[in-house]
Amino acid sequence: MREYNVAIVGATGAVGEQMRKILESRDLPVSHLKLLASERSEGKRLTWKRVGTEVEVLGADSFQNIDIALFSAGSEISEEYAPIARDSGAVVIDNSNAWRMDPEVPLVVPEVNPAALMGHHGLIANPNCSTIQMVVALKPLHDRWNLKRVVVSTYQAVSGSGQKAVDELMAQSEAYLADKPLDIESYPHQIAFNLIPHIDVFDDDGNSKEEMKMVHETRKILDLDDLPITATTVRVPIVVGHSESINVELSEPVDVEEARKILAESSGITVIDNPREAEYPMPLNAAGMDDCYVGRIRRDDSLASGLNLWVVADNLRKGAALNAVQIAEVLVRAGLKE
Ligand code: A2P
Fold first, then answer.
1. Ligand 1 pocket: which of 18, 20, 77 to mutate (most atoms <8 Å of CB)?
2. Active-site residue, from 120, 142, 242, 292
3. Structural domain containing residue 75
4. For 66-112, what is each residue's pLDDT tens digit?
5. Whole-model pTM over 0.85
6. Does 99 lie in the same domain as 141?
């Protein structure tokens, strides 16, 4: 069987670590894994298939003989190095925001729009974490009832901002409980024992960049250029697992039981929806898991055809690393990467 040389750019980060673990546990045939990071990590050893593997410093010559390059080191690194990797012969799957809205670049969630990979030009974008878990839940509903409008509010874990933010949440929590001064660096405010309705920068209309990513990326992935959609994104003091309250307006009235069944039968979704027994998706259950968890499925009686959903997923896995690896798997399976 053909095997592939794979590189992870940003291998020492929160998403890069998950990429390594996920590659170990899945079927993508990897002959060699190259771990790339900044000079800060030079000489560091990470485990790959129980063997210590040295992290190498990212450079223009890092991609010789690499077939698949998974990028998770931020937009600036992707802007500079993704074209270099592609021109060296690798297919790039990029987790940053750098290329997502480029019309030449497929933006892919394998359960939702795998056909977008056909005719790719060596650079594929992984959507924003909040977008991925939302479109996984929206697509089956759209296929059955046609989406008319989406309103979403998110509750996003700090690991979405990288390992430094996770460390900061822990340090702030300890300092707060010990009544000591808090170091505040990752966010404009303390995140421990708080939440912050501010992810990325605000535009002139008062929407954050994260909110507009959800709008534009969802339209691109679902191929619904005019879909009315509005988002409010909020950072919460959770380490792993993004949650979303999604209100959907559909083109005709929805049978809730049928919606539950359609969602439960859809690829990548597990329905947990028994609120009377206190059973619904929560970040604690979704962390470390692959599926998007959907619950609190109920009619929204303020609309003729409205539905409310609660969707939770591991933002580092399905929201980032797993989705990227799944894209690589589709490419290999479909013969889109020789
Ligand atoms: P390093 O650990 O050497 O700084 P996170 O999202 O958790 O903050 O991780 C970011 C990842 O991107 C890390 O692996 C980090 O490596 C990597 N990274 C950041 N800046 C660079 C750079 N200039 N060159 C290569 N990798 C980088």
1. 77
2. 242
3. 4-128+320-333
4. 999 999 999 999 999 999 999 999 999 999 999 999 999 999 999 99
5. yes
6. no
